[in-house]
Amino acid sequence: MSDISEKIRSAVKISVKEAFEIDAEDNMVMVERPRDPKMGDYSTNIAMRLAKSLHRKPIEIANDLIPVLQKNLPEASSVTAAGAGFINFVMSESSLADVINKIIEAGDSYGKNNTGNGEKILVEFVSANPTGDLHCGHARGAAWGDAICRLLEASGYDVLREYYVNDAGNQIHMLALSLIARYNEYFGRPFELPEDGYHAEDVKNIAVEIAKTEGDKWLDADENERLEYFKNIGIEKELKKIENDLALYRVTFNSWVHERMFYENDGARIKKVLNDLKEKGLTYEEDGALWFRSTQFGDDKDRVLKKSTGLLTYLTPDIANHVYKLERGYTKLVDLLGADHHSYVTRMNCALEALGYPKGCLEVDLIQMVRMVDNGVEVKMS
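Predicted structure:
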């Protein structure tokens, strides 16, 4: 809340006490900017909120309050009633100029406050797969997330900026195969790019860099050993590129959590999540798959945790990821996701509630997809 808004709110509380002998609670006094600037600089609906307790029409209450407000708020050049009982304020030029002086004096500290009182908040954003360059959609998410973090930090919250690295799925297998193909190409060996692989120039450049650094040692190496090496080096190179690009954009992270971590120790963290849900009677088997009774918590249908093939769905390790966030002492989680994840929001909130965490501990902002057009033709970004 701005200095002027706070002054108006304080004057309203004092004036209500003087005029009606009522102590107005903080949450009762609302000060807003009118949608139509012609109505004034600020507005309050306090008269409407007092109508029930005073058994009077809001406009009558507003008219009685106005002379008291004029006395208690000398910074206002005009205080008038409008509509059904809104009270509108026009602030004097000198009061507005005072704010400019305060901004200049405070410099970079202007607006900083301790609203958060040190509450621990974890904000996860960008989290692009380490399989290629960032695009404009990621740039939008990076700007949004960074702005949220800066505002929270300036308001006294203890903020952790986290990037979740999706490095355990089939996309990493495809990245490794794509790099191996380009590596073979560099040495003139026959190669075939996977149909679902990564054909962009950046992947080819990484393969060339590996070839120049490592030589031809991987051409005839053990197939499994080679695959694992190219997975690891691919993730490392792509993440470094992502980190450098974000740094140029002045966006930094102080935590990088890898999906692979949740498969360590025989998937202990994932198994604990599944076991906790099972003990609560919230899982069942059907058609060979393991299901989560998410409908008990407001979902439109139950969700699969483990497929009939034995493979986990993406939801399952991500539940473990969010539990890990909360286990580190963060009381509020914020995720920034693409708009195509809208149905995912409900199921994750259901999972956390099912595991006993407070309802609403996770808040998700959905970022609309970016559509780029060149000469009337939509351009692909990746």
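Summary: DSSP finds eleven helices and 14 strands in the chain.
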